[in-house]
């Protein structure tokens, strides 16, 4: 086996869920049938790793300082939805008719892993809540133990600034991950969110 | 969602078995946790798509005109093993103690798809069999209908040049693909190969 081929198989294993056998299958597939697609992937991947950073307002992935959603004048700035990951944000955007703004934690509170309010950018979130424009904070963290603890913390933070916290309702399976919930369920849960008490 | 991110998700779908959802998961994973690995993959992938061609002797993938196996003086040139794909060749190399040489068809006879002897490089194989060095042709095509038809053709070709054709024995499941056979089975099948009659 050529050394460059071995390097390719090894490099492909950086992808999640890709072990030695499927990395090998991917490498052979590209070499046999998808040279152009492989070249294209190499170019886009290099550009993406280099140029995609975080939106300075919502912390979602973005090529520019402000992401398209934050920069849009047609979104309702009275509604702010907090999610754990960019994938959660995308799931909500695709499944629901939500027209407010987002804040992406890029994680959840996890003191044992050294992830506190600072690591999640909650100082920036607090400043935004203090700004007076946000009226409702939709806390869409995952219904896991850490996600619930994070939600509780965020609800308190909202109330401190006179902002009403709410949480998407029934439908998201307990212990599940928002990202993998079907669209219908997620849309329903989002529509019937309840105020946190 | 940023346009470059959308392009990355789309480009990842060139990989086999990767749909929209897993392409998205891969993109987020790389951006969140594997920037360096993603950069490395982009570089190796570009180099591999550009520089990996085929060995002019055995048709396996190779960066150089002659692959490492064909160039090695320690392989037994009296034994020649014919396989359908580079993955089959690798499976045999890893599972068995085979020390002969290979010939990679990069396919199998399939007249309806326009794949005949010429497309599989069988003129080159015939010239090699005529050379007099090869004593046994191990026909390790897959035990599928087309693989068996190809094996039959290759056995005839071998006999025409006074070369003994053989076929790996029991153990490879009927209708299966060599690439996915466990090592023990493949090694056994290879060791107890029988002469084709
Ligand atoms: Zn933003
Ligand atoms: Zn070779």
TrEMBL record, chains A, B:
Residues 78-173 form the Toprim domain. Keywords: DNA damage, DNA recombination, DNA repair, Metal-binding, Zinc, Zinc-finger. Pfam families: RecR_C, RecR_HhH, RecR_ZnF, Toprim_4. A zinc finger (C4-type) spans 55-70. SMART domains: TOPRIM. InterPro entries: DNA_Rcmb_RecR, Rcmb_RecR, Rcmb_RecR_Znf, TOPRIM_dom, TOPRIM_RecR. It comes from the Bacteria. One of its GO terms (molecular function) is DNA binding. One of its GO terms (biological process) is DNA recombination. The keyword Oxidoreductase does not apply. PROSITE patterns: TOPRIM. Belongs to the RecR family. May play a role in DNA repair. It seems to be involved in an RecBC-independent recombinational process of DNA repair. It may act with RecF and RecO. This is Recombination protein RecR. It comes from Vulcaniibacterium thermophilum. The lineage of its organism: Bacteria, Pseudomonadati, Pseudomonadota, Gammaproteobacteria, Lysobacterales. The gene is recR.
